[in-house]
Design goal:
With 266 residues, this protein is an alpha/beta fold. It has helices at residues 3-33, 40-63, 65-75, 89-100, 118-123, 137-146, 188-201, 220-234, 259-264; strands at 106-112, 127-134, 153-157, 171-177, 202-214, 238-246, 248-256. The chain has a seven-stranded mixed β-sheet with strand order 3-2-1-4-5-7-6, with helices on both faces. Bound molecules: S-adenosylmethionine (SAM).
Length: 266
């Protein structure tokens, strides 16, 4: 082998080895700098949320659901760590939800069980007008305070189980995140009725997105989430657009049926 051939081969090997080393470095740099989906703080948030939910269940048995959620927001102004910058989980959940929506611009969005309204705020980027409803007055007061200066966004007290009929057909997007599994008792008949009620709120072709906690079917709440998503998916009022499984929640996107729905439910 001539010196030139040798030098060329060596240069080729060096650049191949260099390329490999660069790839390995890039792989580890990306792994180390990529935010973990579940930080230790977020694990703490899950444990804290579970305590909040147990307290809500106890209070609900004695004083009813509305009082239980009012009490949760009085005990701590951020019961599920939605606004706190300490926790990343809820913010990532909101970002995923908005990113999964069909790419069109919506006219009027409804965020049912809006809590502190942080997801509602994000929906303003995708809808001309957004309304957030929550059963707890305390949540609505906080949501209004957080949304100060955000335009085209309103909040009102409202119960998923008792929505005024004046809202029917007014929305082309309804989002319900981590809310339905709080309804108790959550029988399949109630779920079927809720799917119909949500369909009533939508204009034909409108989109419903439901998102609920899901941890590998390991806990009872995950199994409840599965039942909720199945009930909405099997509702004759909707056709399924897509299902998504993220750590640690399920998202189902549905479209209100048009012509058939109009004939069956004039
Ligand atoms: C875990 S928080 C979720 C809040 C928000 N959707 C989010 O993802 O950040 C559940 C919320 O559902 C509300 N909620 C519970 N039952 C409700 C009902 N029957 N009607 C309306 N809101 C309800 C609670 O007050 C609470 O704010």
């Amino acid at each position: 082998m001539s010196y030139v051939e040798d030098a060329t081969k060596l240069a080729g090997e060096t650049s191949a080895r260099g390329q490999l080393a660069r790839s390995v470095r890039a792989f580890f740099a990306e792994r180390l700098t990529r935010p973990f989906f579940m930080s230790p703080r977020d694990v703490g948030l899950f444990l804290r949320s579970a305590r909040t939910d147990r307290a809500i269940n106890r209070m609900r048995r004695q004083h009813g659901a509305r009082a239980a959620f009012e009490a949760a927001y009085s005990a701590t102004s951020d019961p599920w760590g939605s606004a706190s910058l300490r926790y990343g989980y809820q913010r990532r959940k909101y970002d995923h939800i908005v990113a999964l929506l069909p790419s069109r611009q919506f006219r009027k969005a409804l965020d049912l069980g809006c809590g502190l309204g942080l997801l509602s705020q994000r929906l303003t980027a995708r809808a001309d007008e957004t309304l957030g409803l929550d059963v707890a007055d305390a949540a609505i007061k906080l949501a209004r305070a957080y949304a100060k200066g955000v335009g085209r966004l309103t909040f009102a007290q409202g119960d998923v189980l008792d929505l005024p009929h004046e809202l029917n057909g007014r929305f082309d997007l309804v989002v319900i995140a981590d809310t339905l599994y709080y309804l108790s008792p959550l029988k399949n008949e109630l779920l079927k009725m809720l799917a119909c009620r949500v369909a009533d709120l939508l204009a034909p072709g409108g989109i419903c997105l439901i998102a609920d906690h899901f941890f590998f079917s390991a806990d009872i709440d995950s199994r409840t989430s599965r039942r909720i998503h199945d009930a909405f998916s099997w509702s004759p009022r909707f056709s399924v657009v897509s299902h998504h499984r993220k750590p640690f929640f399920l998202v189902t996107i549905l479209e209100k049926r048009g012509l058939i729905d109009a004939i069956v439910n004039p």
